Amino acid sequence: MKVIKRSGREVEMRFDNITSRIDVLTEGLSSELEPSKVAQQVFSSLYDRITTQEIDDLSSETCIGMITSHPDYEILAARIVASNIQKICPNTFHLAMRKLSKAKIITDEVLQVAAKVKENIKHDRDYDFSYFGLKTLEKSYLQRIDGKLVETPQYMFMRVSIGIHGDNVEKVLETYDYMSRGMFIHATPTLFNSGTPRPQLSSCFLVANKEDSIDGIYDTVKECAQISKWAGGIGLHCSDIRANKSHIRGTNGTSDGIIPMLRVYNATARYVNQAGRRKGSIAVYLEPWHADVFSFLELRLNTGEEEARCRDLFLALWIPDLFMKRVEEGGNWSLFCPDKARGLSDVYGEEFEKLYEKYESEGLATKTVRAEDIWRAILKSQAETGTPYMLYKDACNKKSNQSNLGTIKSSNLCTEIIEHTSPDETAVCNLASVALPKFVKGGEFDYAELHKTIKVMTKNLNNVIDRNFYPVKSAERSNMRHRPIGLGVQGLADVFCTLRLPFDSEEAKKINSYIFETIYHASLESSCELSDEQEPYSSFSGSPISNGILQFDMWETEAEIPHSGMYDWEAMRERVKKGVRNSLLVAPMPTASTAQILGNNECFEPYTTNIYLRRTLAGEFVVVNQHLVTDLKKLGLWSKKMKDLMVKSGGSIQSITDIPDDIKKLYRTVWEIKMKDVIDMAAQRGRYIDQSQSMNLFMESPTLSKISSMHMYAHKKGLKTGMYYLRSQAKARPIQVSLEPDCVACSA
Fold first, then answer.
1. Which residues participate in catalysis according to the annotation?
2. In 105-150, where do the E strands start and end?
3. Which of 38, 397, 489, 731 is the most exposed place for a label (fewest CB within 10 A)?
4. Angle in degrees, 0-180, between the axes of helices 704-716 and 371-385, rounded to the nearest 10
5. Helix, strand, or coil here: 185?
6. In the chain, count of helices (H) and strands (E)?
7. Nearest alpha-carbon partner for 413 in 233, 217, 173, 593
8. C-alpha angle 683/688/690, rounded to 5°?
9. What are the backbone dihedrals phi and psi of residue 306, each rounded to the nearest 5 degrees, phi first?
């Protein structure tokens, strides 16, 4: 049999060559690994004129299939993939960028700076990724020409750094070093587009309907299409669009309400994909007083007429406190057409209540129902579809540093961005997430190093605002005026595992709060420094922060955990009065794809399972919580039999008798943790989150009463986002079927 080398040359296939290649990559790994055994399995699958790249693919897949024998096989698999990527790509960064420049994929600036930094590439850091992290990068992130890889992970990080900082070599190298060490990572659009001729680096766009007219609606649709074209995730509020059967004065006709309009957005999301990578993503926000609310809540249900469904839109409610009060008291709720009852979306708090009750007393309601009837429709939709998202209008507005701009009317696709919009301003946010496990050192969490890292991230994201390509002028206008950024996290659950703390323990709750206190303080300090160097953001005057009001000052609900004592908040209060560069700073987002790249659990969530089967085009692989595997290995309990028991238990270890109780407590999944504790921890860190957080709620067997109780508790805790998705556990265990990121648009 012949094998085709990467050069195109044909040589005789030799078993020894396969063995030696694998053996070299086992350096520093457990002596229990058997390169010859891997080679034997690979050799049995070979065929004439197979390529060396295909042999590497077979070798890595074989190793992944052997991780139940020893967890180090996963490391070996990753090393094979990393080595293969490096062999495929040009051997220097400058040469790779020259090829991309010739293909007009990157800018001349990137090529010029590449010549200055080419010696700073740390090729060995490609070997620090997990197998699935590398495969995610290979499939979806690394640049290609005619389908052939040109970028290694290190080349990507350097390209992204140059795209953010241009010819500021010092800052380029600083950012590259942090990212290549896995300390933090920028959001998916930034990784995709940094350094390209159209660097659309933003994740999130919040769009306001231009006006309630044909021209206004279709102008808004066009704007959404333009944003979607450039891979932006969209949050759209439609509470100001007149309801079904409302009078149209211009034609003396009758409106069909928001549902037919939303079907246009649904078609747009399907048709205008995100830079050719996947379909567009639009979340639609509605206030529950809108007369079309019942039809809105049915848009994603599995039953009913297809003409009344929008299965490609994501549904969200923007809920005033008055509605929650009426539900709790068993009162009635009036539904209005916004064309008759004008201005309800423009006010919140007491002002909303007064206007709402005024319209009730004037008999302007289209219909009056029991508040409980709408509540049950919400819960039914959530039990069936996981949506609508639950966001609390009053909390979002009362606790916003943009409250001086006017009433905020919606969030984004993933519910963590809370920003003001208007017909001529489309809110934007640029995201990055810090890898929290990197700061666990010697059994302690290093808050000082986290503080230092967050300051770098803040300045990076501030720079992204200026370097960004804006698909619509209204987005550029908003971002330049208010300069918001979104700092997030990944791997909080990994931190607790490493520190040997159950997720819901009191010590874990303290660390959860202290981490976000550190992030908020560091970002404020960094933004103050930027303001001193440049100037405060243009809408700074009159904002809460201009008066020394910080995020935790806006919370009426007392959190259980006080300040850590690490930071002088009174000094910071005085400092911010002089000016900050960014109106908003902290917004923990879902990190589905970027957490997979860096090998961390997603954002701040507990583990959903300790083991699952991942099916890819290359085959099926078992993915295991590596912290648990390490512990079981130390106890001599890790084996194929143990793996099978875990699979049988759906990723839980609670019923496996051989595992000690302390290990069981440490590795409870989210299904085995009280949602009360999850909500409490969200409220504790919420005091330091000036935007919001993408908090999912989990329920193994959801019932309407259980869902209702969770919502009421989250609302009373003062959360802005009461729920992103309701996740329920399917009776048939899910199988992940691809390596593609879960949310290209918004995932950070």
1. 412, 414, 416
2. 144-145, 148-149
3. 731
4. 110
5. strand
6. 28, 24
7. 233
8. 100
9. -65, -30
Mean pLDDT in consecutive groups of 10 residues from the start of the chain, 748 residues: 84 87 93 92 89 91 87 94 96 97 98 96 97 92 96 98 98 98 97 96 94 93 92 93 86 87 93 70 97 97 87 96 98 97 98 98 97 98 96 98 98 97 96 98 97 98 97 97 98 98 98 98 98 98 98 82 94 98 98 94 96 61 86 92 90 96 98 97 97 96 94 97 92 46 50
Which residue's structure tokens are 């959860």? 512
For residue 634 the two structure tokens come to: 């130390």
3-class DSSP state for residue 629?
Answer: helix
**Using CA atoms, how far apart are residues 726 and 382, in angstroms rounded to an integer?**
6
CATH annotation of 204-398: 3.20.70.20
Asked if residue 399 lies in contact with residue 721, where contact means CB atoms within 8 angstroms, the answer is no
Peptide bond into 562 cis (omega under 30): no
CA distances (Å), 466 to each of 188, 202, 476, 581, in order?
A: 18, 11, 9, 12
Residues in the chain: 748
256's CB contacts (< 8 A; 6+ apart) are: 244
* pLDDT (0 to 100) of residue 314: 97
Q: How far is CA 69 from CA 76, 81, 121, 464, 564, in A?
A: 13, 20, 35, 45, 44
Residue reference for tokens 């942090």? 178
Q: Which sign does the torsion angle of CA 66, 67, 72, 74 carry?
A: positive
Q: What is the pLDDT of residue 429?
A: 94
What is the reported pLDDT for 557? 67
Buried b (16+ CB within 10 A) or exposed e, 419-439: bbbeeebbbbbbbbbbbbbbb
Q: Which of 236, 209, 212, 248 is CA-nearest to residue 338?
A: 212
How far is residue 324's CA from residue 330's CA, in Å, rounded to a whole number? 10
pLDDT at 615: 58
pLDDT at residue 11, as a whole number = 86
Reading the block at residue 165, the tokens are 């900082």
Q: Is the pTM of this model over 0.90?
A: yes
Give the integer Cα–Cα distance in Å for 500 and 321.
40
